[in-house]
Every structure is written in structure tokens, then in C-alpha cells.
Amino acid sequence: MFKNLRDEIKAIKQKDPAARSTLEIFLCYPGFYALLFHRVSHWLWNHSLKLLARINSNIARFLTGIEIHPGATFGKRVFIDHGMGVVVGETAVVGDDVLLYQGVILGGTSTEKTKRHPTLERGVIVGAGAKVMGNITIGEYSKIGTGAVVLKDVPAESTCVGVPGRIVKCKGVSYKKVNLDHDKLPDPVADAIRTLEKHLKENDEQIKILFDKNEICLAEDIRDEQEELEDLFKK
Q1: What is the pLDDT of residues 157-192, one digit of tens each?
Q2: Spatial distance between the Cα atoms of 224 and 217, rounded to a whole number of angstroms
């Protein structure tokens, strides 16, 4: 048990540059407390003490602002950074070394009593405010961008951004080292807009060239007509 706590604290120090000491993590990190409460709630849930499990999880929600259903399964070294507004559903599975930011929702899309919440495999990073919905799988070491709404499976070592979520394959890039550069996530919508702007600029240049040619031709025609009129007057 103490070894697991040491691993959890070590993981927080690796993933959060603001963590200065073990004591600070114990006293000031709601994500750390939320997971401690959840491990108790999950044990109670699995031993048919479901009411006690729900009571314990509600106490954790009141204290931390993080709502985790007692039935959800969490792996080792999971870190919920800040955590306010995080919601994790009953059948969600969160693998080892996963990083969740504030406002993340791992929600369900069915009312049937089946597996209806997502599975996050090892090393997944889910950005602030992202919604991962339904019985889908987010492959290991994948990234979910801030504010994304993910409704379909995401392959391993991929990035998913936007509403609805769009997958951008990142071949040859390893995410085994925690990477928090959310501002560098691919944005296919922005890329499409930039491409459209480029085409519009090229069209404007072509139109300007055509206008310039027409003006030159018109000037030449006017000059020719003037010369013809001058010849007529001279005659």
C-alpha cells in the first residue's frame, strides 16, 4: 500500500512541474485525495457494500469537486490535475499512467446496464474540458485535445481534436514521455481555413492580373480609335 502511494506521488511530481514536495501533494492536491477516496469506494463496491461506496464517493465529490463512480476502474499512477468538474462514469476503465485535466467527462451514451463508458489505455492524456463518451477505447499514449468531444475509438499513439473529435495520426512519435504541449496539437480545421485563405489570395491575384490586362487592352483600343479619328480629321 505504501509503495503504491509512493508511486502515485512520484507520478504527480513527474506530471506537474508545480509540485514542490510530498507534503504539498498530501495537503493541497484534490486529484490525489479523489483517487484515495475512490480506491476505498471501489473496494466497498466490489464487496457488495454499494450504499457505503456511494456515500463515500459523494463525500469525495463534496471535498474535491471530482465525481468518480465507485464502479469505475483505475490503474496505477493516474493523475487528475486540478480536477474540478471531472466526472467518471460507472463502467469507465482508466489505465496506468493516465493524465486527466479539469472538466474532463468520461460519460455514457446508453441507459442499458452494460459497458457504456470509455476505456482509456496506458499513458493517455485528456485535455481540459474534453468529453469522451460511450463504450469506446482510447489507445495507449494517445492525446485528446482540450475541449474535444470523442465518440469513436482512437488508435494508439494518435491525437484527437475538435467537435466531433477528428483523429490525426502521429506516426513515429512516442508519447511514453509525458508531453504537455497542448498548444502544439494538430488542428485540421485551422489547416483547412489556412488552405482556403491561401486559395482566396491566389484567386485575388489572378483576378487583379486579368483586370490589369483588360485595362491595358482597353487603353490600346482607345488609343487606336483616337488615332483613327485624328486621321479622319486630317483627311
Answers
A1: 888 888 888 887 665 554 455 555 555 566 666 677
A2: 11
